[in-house]
Amino acid sequence: MKRLIAILVVATGSFTLAACEGNQSVLDAHGSSAVELKQLIIWIVAACSLVWAIVMVVLIWALWRSRGGRFPARSAADQRMTFAVIGGVAATVVVIAGFTIFSFLTTRALSEAGSGDLTIKISGTQWWWKATYVNPDHLPSFDIANELHIPVGRNIRLLLATDDVIHSLWVPSLAGKQDLIPGRSNQLAIRADQPGIYRGQCAEFCGLQHSHMAILVIVESEVAFDRWVDLQNLPAAEPGDAEARAGELVFLTKPCAACHTIRGTDAKGVTGPDLTHVGSRRTIGAGLFDTTRGSLAAWIADPQTLKPGNNMPLVPLSSDELRQVSAYLASLQ
Amino acid sequence: LRLDPPLAAALEELRLMPNDIGGTPPEVYFALDKPYENNAYELSQGKRLYAWYGCGSCHGEDGRGGIGPSFLDGWWLYGPEMVSVVASIHDGRPHGMPAFKDKITSEQIWQLAGYIRTIGAYTATTAAPGRNDDRQMRPAENRAPAAILFDQGPTPLHSDQGPSP
């Protein structure tokens, strides 16, 4: 029996601890607003636990005491009852007012980070994220899909918009949720305090592939971020070998180019994700697979089996064409 | 959602009349029970693709026409049959309609054609694409909007209309 209890304690303990870590956890906070929210959560849970414990103690005491069968005089009992009720109401008011003030302060702290010095437009689509980086010095902006790079320690302002249905951006380790609503423009301020890769997820049911609508937020040093921006500003790399060159031709002559942009080529579709540097991204299909040549080929070969209902059509390709296109896309670093 | 590749390939086999107007859809289209006319999902996909591929830049966002012909007036230059519309998108037509056979897949061409035929439909259908989020500037796709305007039968003509549109 003792051993069973020990196992249970260890098991529940490790499960609870496991939920506190990882790159997508409210309790593993690495952003300014996430830390504020985590404090709010912990204090509210602690206060509620304390109240629950006190109520339980008083309840048990009351049950225990009534066994005595010795009743005091009626007026004295009434008086004690009045004190108990007043005390209970006062304690409740204090606790709830405390929660209210605390959450007001937290909300204010969240919006204070909004004086962002870097603005990124984020657009939610069924079922992927598009991020548009607006360059400050009149360079054309560039698009990237399902991945966000931000410098550590800087206030970032995310402008959130959508054209189809309501989505919600939630990167638990960095900030709270914010909805993307058609016809409205919302804002979310984030500041990451520690470099790392944090996973975000659509947090408002948005259709069939809601669960496959993830975004990676890559927090890196200022130097690494600037280098990344310089890379993204470049047009696509010229294909190096013959296979990739053939793949570029296939991409441009098949329906691919009607929806996807590859800057530096004639592919200028805007309805699908920008693929200019697709080989440098960590995942494809909004977090569906890691980016490898094989996963790119699998995705192109049969997108509707891998992510049913998404808007990528099955484009008929021969096996040679598939090999060439996947080599080309994987080479777009 | 997923059309088997052999079915998609079979959908390319239109049997058109020699003048490229009218004809018979491939057998597989009937075997599938004419999904691109009867299935609300396929019609909705067509509506999305109409905006995606910029059909509206010539034919009007709501199908009222522009550089290209209107879909609302009930007048089809190459006939109202599904195959004619598919062939128009697939191979293009003289005087400006480009061929889309290398730009979009055959399934998408059928979805578009099904939707385009609902824009100026004479008759009511039970299947309709999703509603617009913004103001609807024309009758809904599954109503019989134009019947009074285009019916030349014994019912009185609309006062604005001549004998034929």
Characterise the protein shown here.
The complex is a heterodimer of chains A (333) and B (165). With 333 residues, chain A is α+β, with helices and mostly antiparallel strands. Chain A has nine helices and twelve strands. Chain A has helices at 2-20, 32-65, 74-112, 222-233, 242-253, 256-259, 293-301, 303-306, 319-330, and strands at residues 118-125, 128-133, 142-145, 147-151, 156-162, 167-170, 178-180, 186-190, 196-202, 214-220, 283-284, 289-290. Chain A has a five-stranded mixed beta sheet with strand order 3-2-1-5-8. In chain A, strands 4-10-9-6-7 form a five-stranded mixed beta sheet. Chain A is elongated, with a radius of gyration of 28 Å. Chain B has 165 residues and is mainly alpha-helical. Chain B is 36% helix and 2% strand. Chain B contains eight helices and two strands, in the order H-E-E-H-H-H-H-H-H-H. Chain B has helices at residues 5-10, 27-31, 35-38, 40-52, 56-59, 82-91, 106-119, 147-150; strands spanning 15-16, 23-24. A two-stranded antiparallel sheet of chain B has the order 1-2. In chain B, a hairpin with a 6-residue loop joins strand 1 and strand 2 (23-24). In chain B, helix 4 (40-52) crosses helix 7 and helix 6 (82-91) crosses helix 7. Residues 155-159 of chain B have low confidence and may be disordered. Classes of the chains: A alpha+beta (333), B mainly alpha (165).
